[in-house]
Design brief:
By secondary structure, the protein is mainly alpha-helical. The chain has one domain. Helices cover 71% and strands 0% of the residues. It is built from seven helices and no strands. Helix 1 crosses helix 7. The radius of gyration is 15 Å and the shape is globular.
Amino acid sequence: MAIWGGHKPATSAALLVLLTKASTGGASVSYAERVLLVACEFWAAVRNRTLHDYLTHDAQTKIREAEEAFGAMRLTGVGALLRQGYLESTGADPPQSLAQMAAHLEDRLAHIEEPVDEAIEQFVCRWLSYQQR
């Protein structure tokens, strides 16, 4: 996997707005905003190879939420890999450690054909377009 330079500019700008909104106790976060936050957080952990740290507290919930978020962004391949990776790790005999599962997911997602960063940015653009109505 090539070195990742971070989220695309439109995605970073949208995240800054959402994080500022959340930190000031503004209005509640919408479903689309939650999808964006979950997908960006998870993808950054994958690309920075810090998925183990990200999943340390409640891995099952975080993987399920990421699967849903990527599905909402029409990144079904990512969601399928997450589901398959989680099931394989918990069904292994003996079960894989969290570190093994995270490393395995990072490796598999490093070779995914889907343009994840671009799909996230497209989701941001659709979200921003909706906000301007």
